[in-house]
Automatic annotation (TrEMBL):
It catalyses: Hydrolysis of DNA containing ring-opened 7-methylguanine residues, releasing 2,6-diamino-4-hydroxy-5-(N-methyl)formamidopyrimidine. Keywords: DNA damage, DNA repair, DNA-binding, Glycosidase, Hydrolase, Lyase, Multifunctional enzyme. Residues 321-331 have a biased composition (Basic residues). The keyword S-adenosyl-L-methionine does not apply. SMART domains: Fapy_DNA_glyco (SM00898), H2TH (SM01232). It holds the Pfam family Fapy_DNA_glyco. The keyword Hydrolase applies. GO terms for biological process: base-excision repair. One of its GO terms (molecular function) is damaged DNA binding. It comes from the Eukaryota. Belongs to the FPG family. Residues 293-353 are annotated as: Disordered. This is Formamidopyrimidine-DNA glycosylase catalytic domain-containing protein.
Amino acid sequence: MPELPEVERAVALLRTIGKGNKIIRVETSEDSIVFQGLPSHEDFGREISGRVLKDVFRYGKCFYIELEGAGRMPVLHFGMTGMLQVRNQAPLQYMTKIQSSEVWPPKFMKFIFHIEDKSSLTITELAFSDARRLGRIRLATHPREEPPISRLGFDPIISMPSPMEFRTLVLRRSCPIKALLLDQSFSAGVGNYLADEILYQAKVHPEQRCNTLHQTQVDALHREVADVCRIAVEANADVDKYPSHWLFKHRWGKGKKAQSMKLPSGEPATIKWITVGGRTSAYVTEVQCLPHKQGAGTEAATEEESDLTLLSSDYDDRPAASHRKRKRKSKTIGSSAPTEEPLREKHSRLRKR
């Protein structure tokens, strides 16, 4: 799904096309799920049409459009499959097959802005589409002070906390560190692939409990949260420009013939997949190790969520809703071996027969 870098790229596109120009018309398509807090999709278009686009801003995975004149501002979230597309240009997409730029309006379109250039008077059409309908379109008077943005945690690019503040935020939690990184009320904008990259670069196992981390580990996490997000944004979310030593280049092999990976030393690396916080997590066994007292297959091997307050069901990055312990399944490149059913659970089940 689009994460912080992909949303930043979309913001840059919209800013380039629209800043200082007027939205002369808005086409909308009925969708009571994606359009939130509005009587109808048509109300969105009526409130936006005829206003000048002053600027576009991102916070976490949300972005909002500042408009001149009376009225509210659009607040947008891509969800899993949301995207922007300019007419006659390929859409901005994330790890999926690019749609044809010749199809217009694009399939699953929710709205189209008709933007008039103040100099040339030419019209540019920009569409927001969302196939899985997990994106959200809202209007807000003060976007940064209203939900959903007001409920978000720090943004690694905009408002990264100091090392000491970060240490306090992390060490008071008891959930797996991967679940905490995915919680948008902790780190806004960090999604699954960014979290895996941060943990790999910091050499921290995704299942390690936050309150068991050493100071050196927390400091490494603080550094990598900022650095990984910055590097991805500087690359304009172009995956071909991501560093060759990133786990990102190799993490997509689950269920397929996986690519080989080598450590900087030249030694082979083993990528393993587990479920943490309700999400599939990739990690390198030679680099990311659990402390002995928190071995795999014990309390750590559960689909446990962050113990922060969940934002809302609108967010696909929310951790799993249940605290129930579940049998962990894991997959390693070249092999597949789920863990054994716990003996206590097996005997209990047999007694009930």
